[in-house]
């Protein structure tokens, strides 16, 4: 075959190969564009779905907890199964959430038996069993734990959050929030502008044993069902495809043709059910019709061009082959020679560059790396193949790449760039310092082709420089922080460096004094003879000298201590002289202050009116203050040298109860009250040991305070307290007595009203009424006598009510590991005490019981009973007398106490708790309260057997109540009515009397002896009554609580509250909380009738 034919065929094949390569690259580029478009769309879908989930779904996990915790009345209504109240309270919250998020679909309450109690979005639908259809509901009922996740509902796909509700630790049901998954598809349609729909994995339905769903629009594969897609939508025309059976959660269907247009389907299985199983996902259609058309046009144009180019090449070769072959041969030889020379030069330069340890590199004008040596690639831990042909942006982090490009630009613009020696983070994360130089390189025309750079690792040099700078800075900072004047001079006594104190002392500045003779600075006016400091500098010896303020040549004019040190090199040769001048003025002032303090102590010692002596270990008096001398020195004989017992008692031996002996023996402060019979005085003697540094007792400090007058005043105060106790006790009879008087006077008035005046019984009834009025006046006088202050005053009270109030607070604060067992006798009687102090007593004892079993399961048992205590049981209790007592017993199952601890628990500030967890005052205060009310406390405990505290408080006998009666008006003047009235009182006799009166006056009366039952009835019949008349002091719900509960349901309901006697409720307080009228028992029937009428008419 001829050479021309061979060459033509070869070139033709080459051209054909190039055309094919160009065609292949074009197709590949189109495919990459489609792939990138697919990836971008998929990333957007994932990003927006994740954002919507985090912003919308996760938010409701917290809001449902807030819904339960912030609205306890909703939880209470659910627990009580009050559907109407529950709807009334939950409806506004559902509407608010629906307004905030239109996709918020439901709030639903589920009963433990699997039925729906209330759908707030559909309140008329309830009672149906749904647990078998709703796996999430069934799971919450079984596990009693909160869950969240996606779940299929009757009307579509939902994200549900279901949390359990408990009543006193018992499972009461569950609350559910539901948000439509359409929120995700609608959000995607708006944000990525693609047709979007949701699908469900049918395998999940089969695994959950759920029936086929009725609202799916299309089954697009064996395992995927479209949900809620409209019939005319794009997704209704998707053909069934086998390639949609991928097990990957995210995949794409390429080049799908629907209605003559080309699409990519993005299929993302994004959501799982509450068990984490893949459940449903999003399908989005991306239109690529324009890209497909562009690809087809490119193919057509490329094929036409390639065929034309191939024909043109073959024709050109046919007519110009010979001439071209000769030229090519000559050019080939010339290039071979040039290549050999260039190769040799290149290999030499490459070997040279590779052998240099510095980092060498070059880039073209576009910042693309053309050359880099081995040191460069090793430093950045990359291969040459990974570096060459790439830019800084492709190789390095953004900030580092910007810094490199900026230095390249500066080198090309200014002709040179040299980097400052700064710390940077190296490729391995360590801190390094680099010294980099960059210069531009040009062609033969001077045009810049790129830059050449060389970098050197100067980390070690940088560390040395920084260390020297830091050392110099620290040294300068250290000496500047000193108040001493410090300076450094050379061997010629010229100043090298000084601190701020030196310049302040000399009134100079560094700019004018460095390298100046030190004598010219410290003695600017000169001196005839060298001062001691200058002579010390000249001697070049280490020395210390003191210069007083008036010493010749003292540079400070104040007493100073000069310290001179010669600085030597490694060969022990002197190189400079260090001098420190320390001002002794403050030290001299301290010495003067010590002398002054000693004199002041002496004056104070002798001014103290207590008798103070300092004694040695043999109790001989070494020093005595003036008070001791004035009282104990006799016949001019000094106390000094006498023993304590000789001076105080005139005896030759220590007294048997001498605290000094105990202090010497035990090494602690001891005190004793000692009577001085000769002086007819009583002293409180305190003796404290004084130790030497080794801990040996050196002296005794003996302080004797004359407490004769103090003891007399204590006795007078004790007598006054007994009188106060009598006054306090008298106030305790009021409450029950007034209740008795209310019934007596009320029924007597009713009986007299029904008795003709001529009947002898009429006069008898009048006498009963007069006696009742006198009794009421007497109660009033007793209360007036007993009311001495309004705060913390003892009053008659029922301790079981205080216990109930205290336990409410304790139940709210104690952990579930601690239970409370009660054995309370509500009829045990009353005590005379302040309710606040009794409340404090109960809280203190219960808190101690809790701390004894804080880290374990335990029980606190509280008992209250009445007991007749005999004299034998009160043996040793001087302040307690036999009789009836209210006995409060508080026991725990905690760690218990040993005898030593039990003996100390009532001491102030004694505590067994760790630092910061107790003051040690709780039981001390408790003991004080009990003693104040003439009671006693006993403790039984053993290690590991728990503790029992038994409190005995005197019981009240025949407590009486207050208030006066007034003259009875004529019954004919009493107002009548026909309204409905509710009476609440725990005294049946009072209820019977008031019901008789009000029924007679025409009112329709309903009576309740139990306030709790009254409130339950009123809650279900709030509109049945026109007026409520209630007592204040009742066992379950007090009158104040009745007012609060009634006004919550009927804000304008008229209420009358009455009391025989109460320390916590007064007229002003009663009216302020909503009562119309406040009455004090005993109440006359005409006053009751007038009050009822006034409350109804007002």
UniProtKB/TrEMBL annotation:
<feature type="domain" description="Histidine kinase">
    <location>
        <begin position="732"/>
        <end position="957"/>
    </location>
</feature>
<feature type="domain" description="PAS">
    <location>
        <begin position="345"/>
        <end position="415"/>
    </location>
</feature>
<dbReference type="InterPro" id="IPR000700">
    <property type="entry name" value="PAS-assoc_C"/>
</dbReference>
<keyword id="KW-1003">Cell membrane</keyword>
<dbReference type="InterPro" id="IPR000014">
    <property type="entry name" value="PAS"/>
</dbReference>
<dbReference type="Pfam" id="PF00072">
    <property type="entry name" value="Response_reg"/>
</dbReference>
<dbReference type="InterPro" id="IPR036097">
    <property type="entry name" value="HisK_dim/P_sf"/>
</dbReference>
<feature type="domain" description="PAS">
    <location>
        <begin position="471"/>
        <end position="525"/>
    </location>
</feature>
<dbReference type="InterPro" id="IPR011006">
    <property type="entry name" value="CheY-like_superfamily"/>
</dbReference>
<protein>
    <recommendedName>
        <fullName>histidine kinase</fullName>
        <ecNumber>2.7.13.3</ecNumber>
    </recommendedName>
</protein>
<dbReference type="InterPro" id="IPR029150">
    <property type="entry name" value="dCache_3"/>
</dbReference>
<dbReference type="Pfam" id="PF13426">
    <property type="entry name" value="PAS_9"/>
</dbReference>
<feature type="domain" description="Response regulatory">
    <location>
        <begin position="980"/>
        <end position="1096"/>
    </location>
</feature>
<dbReference type="InterPro" id="IPR029151">
    <property type="entry name" value="Sensor-like_sf"/>
</dbReference>
<dbReference type="InterPro" id="IPR001789">
    <property type="entry name" value="Sig_transdc_resp-reg_receiver"/>
</dbReference>
<keyword id="KW-0067">ATP-binding</keyword>
<keyword id="KW-0902">Two-component regulatory system</keyword>
<dbReference type="Pfam" id="PF08448">
    <property type="entry name" value="PAS_4"/>
</dbReference>
<dbReference type="Pfam" id="PF00512">
    <property type="entry name" value="HisKA"/>
</dbReference>
<keyword id="KW-0597">Phosphoprotein</keyword>
<keyword id="KW-0547">Nucleotide-binding</keyword>
<dbReference type="InterPro" id="IPR036890">
    <property type="entry name" value="HATPase_C_sf"/>
</dbReference>
<keyword id="KW-0812">Transmembrane</keyword>
<dbReference type="InterPro" id="IPR003594">
    <property type="entry name" value="HATPase_dom"/>
</dbReference>
<feature type="domain" description="PAC">
    <location>
        <begin position="667"/>
        <end position="719"/>
    </location>
</feature>
<feature type="modified residue" description="4-aspartylphosphate">
    <location>
        <position position="1031"/>
    </location>
</feature>
<dbReference type="InterPro" id="IPR004358">
    <property type="entry name" value="Sig_transdc_His_kin-like_C"/>
</dbReference>
<feature type="transmembrane region" description="Helical">
    <location>
        <begin position="7"/>
        <end position="27"/>
    </location>
</feature>
<feature type="transmembrane region" description="Helical">
    <location>
        <begin position="298"/>
        <end position="321"/>
    </location>
</feature>
<dbReference type="InterPro" id="IPR003661">
    <property type="entry name" value="HisK_dim/P_dom"/>
</dbReference>
<feature type="domain" description="PAC">
    <location>
        <begin position="410"/>
        <end position="470"/>
    </location>
</feature>
<keyword id="KW-0418">Kinase</keyword>
<dbReference type="InterPro" id="IPR005467">
    <property type="entry name" value="His_kinase_dom"/>
</dbReference>
<keyword id="KW-0808">Transferase</keyword>
<keyword id="KW-0472">Membrane</keyword>
<dbReference type="Pfam" id="PF14827">
    <property type="entry name" value="dCache_3"/>
</dbReference>
<dbReference type="GO" id="GO:0005886">
    <property type="term" value="C:plasma membrane"/>
</dbReference>
<dbReference type="InterPro" id="IPR035965">
    <property type="entry name" value="PAS-like_dom_sf"/>
</dbReference>
<dbReference type="Pfam" id="PF02518">
    <property type="entry name" value="HATPase_c"/>
</dbReference>
<dbReference type="GO" id="GO:0000155">
    <property type="term" value="F:phosphorelay sensor kinase activity"/>
</dbReference>
<dbReference type="GO" id="GO:0005524">
    <property type="term" value="F:ATP binding"/>
</dbReference>
<keyword id="KW-1133">Transmembrane helix</keyword>
């Amino acid at each position: 075959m001829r050479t021309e034919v061979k060459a033509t065929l070869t070139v033709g094949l080459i051209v054909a190969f190039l055309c094919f390569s160009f065609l292949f690259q074009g197709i590949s580029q189109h495919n990459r564009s489609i792939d990138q478009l697919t990836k971008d769309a998929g990333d957007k879908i994932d990003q927006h779905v994740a954002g919507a989930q985090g912003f919308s779904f996760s938010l409701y996990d917290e809001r449902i907890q807030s819904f339960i915790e912030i609205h306890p009345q909703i939880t209470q209504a659910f627990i009580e199964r009050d559907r109407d109240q529950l709807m009334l309270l939950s409806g506004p919250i559902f509407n608010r959430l629906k307004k905030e998020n239109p996709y918020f679909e439901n709030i639903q309450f589920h009963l433990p038996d699997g039925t729906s109690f209330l759908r707030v979005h559909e309140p008329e639908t309830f009672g149906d069993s749904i647990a078998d259809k709703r796996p999430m509901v069934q799971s919450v009922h079984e596990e009693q734990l909160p869950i969240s996740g996606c779940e299929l509902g009757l009307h579509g796909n939902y994200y549900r959050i279901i949390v359990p509700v408990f009543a006193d630790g018992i499972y009461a049901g569950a609350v559910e929030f539901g948000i439509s998954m359409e929120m995700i598809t609608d959000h995607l349609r708006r944000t990525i502008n693609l047709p979007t729909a949701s699908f469900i994995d049918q395998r999940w339905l089969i695994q959950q044993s759920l029936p086929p769903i009725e609202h799916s629009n299309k089954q697009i594969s064996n395992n995927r069902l479209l949900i809620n897609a409209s019939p005319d939508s794009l997704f209704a025309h998707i053909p069934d495809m086998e390639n949609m059976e991928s097990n990957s959660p995210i995949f794409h269907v390429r080049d799908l043709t629907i209605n003559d247009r080309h699409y990519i389907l993005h299929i993302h299985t994004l959501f799982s059910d509450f068990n984490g199983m893949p459940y449903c996902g999003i399908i989005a259609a991306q239109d690529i019709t324009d890209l497909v058309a562009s690809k087809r046009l490119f193919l057509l144009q490329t094929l036409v061009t390639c065929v034309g180019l191939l024909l043109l090449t073959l024709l050109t070769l046919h007519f110009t082959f010979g001439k071209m072959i000769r030229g090519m041969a000559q050019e080939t030889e010339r290039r071979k020679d040039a290549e050999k020379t260039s190769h040799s030069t290149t290999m030499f330069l490459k070997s040279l560059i590779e052998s240099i340890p510095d980092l060498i590199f070059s880039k073209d004008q576009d910042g693309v790396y053309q050359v880099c040596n081995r040191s460069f690639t090793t430093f950045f831990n990359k291969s040459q193949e990974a570096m060459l042909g790439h830019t800084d942006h492709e190789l390095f982090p953004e900030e580092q790449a910007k810094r490199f490009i900026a230095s390249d630009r500066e080198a090309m613009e200014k002709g040179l760039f040299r980097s400052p020696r700064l710390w940077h983070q190296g490729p391995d994360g360590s801190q390094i310092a680099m010294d980099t130089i960059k210069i531009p390189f040009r062609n033969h025309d001077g045009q810049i082709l790129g830059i050449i750079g060389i970098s050197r690792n100067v980390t070690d040099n940088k560390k040395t420089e920084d260390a020297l700078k830091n050392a110099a800075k620290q040294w300068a900072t250290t000496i500047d922080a000193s108040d001493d004047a410090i300076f450094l001079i050379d061997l010629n006594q010229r100043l090298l460096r000084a601190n701020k104190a030196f310049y302040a002392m000399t009134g100079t500045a560094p700019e004018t004094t460095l390298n100046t003779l030190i004598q010219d600075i410290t003695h600017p006016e000169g001196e005839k003879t060298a001062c001691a400091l200058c002579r010390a500098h000249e001697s070049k010896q280490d020395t210390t000298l003191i210069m007083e303020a008036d010493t010749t040549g003292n540079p400070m004019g104040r007493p100073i201590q000069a310290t001179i040190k010669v600085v030597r090199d490694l060969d022990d040769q002197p190189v400079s002289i260090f001098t420190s001048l320390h001002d002794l003025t403050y030290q001299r002032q301290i010495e003067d202050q010590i002398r002054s303090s000693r004199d002041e102590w002496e004056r104070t010692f002798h001014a103290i009116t207590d008798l103070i002596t300092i004694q040695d270990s043999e109790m001989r008096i070494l020093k005595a203050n003036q008070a001791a001398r004035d009282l104990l020195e006799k016949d001019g004989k000094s106390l000094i040298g006498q023993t304590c017992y000789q001076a105080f008692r005139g005896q030759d031996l220590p007294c048997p109860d001498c605290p000094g002996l105990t202090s010497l023996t035990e090494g602690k402060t001891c005190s004793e009250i000692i009577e001085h019979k000769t002086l007819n005085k009583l002293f409180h003697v305190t003796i404290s040991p004084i130790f030497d540094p080794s801990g040996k007792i050196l002296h005794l400090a003996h302080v004797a305070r004359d407490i004769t007058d103090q003891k007399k005043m204590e006795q007078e105060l004790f007598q006054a307290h007994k009188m106060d106790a009598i006054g306090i006790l008298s106030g305790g009879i009021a409450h029950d007595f007034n209740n008795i008087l209310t019934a007596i006077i009320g029924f007597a008035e009713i009986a007299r009203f029904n008795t003709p005046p001529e009947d002898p019984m009429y006069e008898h009834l009048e006498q009963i009424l007069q006696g009742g009025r006198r009794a009421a006046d007497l109660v009033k006088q007793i209360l007036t006598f007993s009311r001495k202050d309004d705060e913390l005053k003892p009053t008659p009270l029922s301790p079981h009510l205080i216990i109930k109030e205290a336990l409410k607070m304790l139940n709210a604060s104690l952990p579930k590991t601690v239970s409370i067992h009660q054995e309370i006798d509500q009829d045990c009687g009353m005590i005379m005490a302040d309710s606040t102090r009794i409340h404090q007593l109960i809280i203190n004892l219960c808190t101690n019981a809790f701390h004894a079993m804080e880290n374990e399961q335990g029980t606190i048992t509280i008992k209250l009973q009445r007991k007749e205590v005999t004299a034998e049981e009160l043996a040793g209790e001087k302040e307690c007398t036999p009789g009836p007592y209210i006995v409060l017993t508080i026991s725990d199952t905690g760690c218990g106490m040993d005898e030593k601890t039990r003996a100390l628990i009532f001491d102030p500030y004694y505590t067994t708790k760790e630092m910061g967890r107790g003051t040690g005052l709780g039981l001390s205060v408790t003991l004080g309260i009990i003693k104040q009310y003439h009671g006693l406390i006993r403790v039984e405990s053993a290690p590991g057997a728990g503790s029992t505290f038994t409190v005995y408080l005197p019981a009240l006998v025949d407590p009486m109540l207050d208030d006066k009666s007034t003259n009875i008006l004529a019954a004919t003047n009493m107002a009548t009515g026909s309204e409905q009235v509710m009476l609440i009182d725990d005294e049946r006799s009072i209820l019977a009397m008031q019901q008789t009166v009000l029924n007679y006056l025409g009112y329709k009366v309903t009576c309740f002896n139990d306030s709790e039952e009254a409130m339950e009835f009123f809650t279900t019949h709030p509109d049945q009554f026109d007026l409520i008349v209630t007592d204040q002091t009742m066992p379950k719900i007090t009158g104040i609580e009745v007012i609060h509960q009634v006004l919550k349901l009927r804000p304008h309901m008229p209420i009358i509250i009455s009391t025989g006697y109460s320390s916590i409720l007064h007229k002003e307080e009663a009216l302020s909380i909503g009562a119309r009228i406040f009455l004090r028992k005993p109440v006359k029937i005409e006053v009751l009738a007038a009050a009822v009428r006034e409350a109804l008419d007002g």
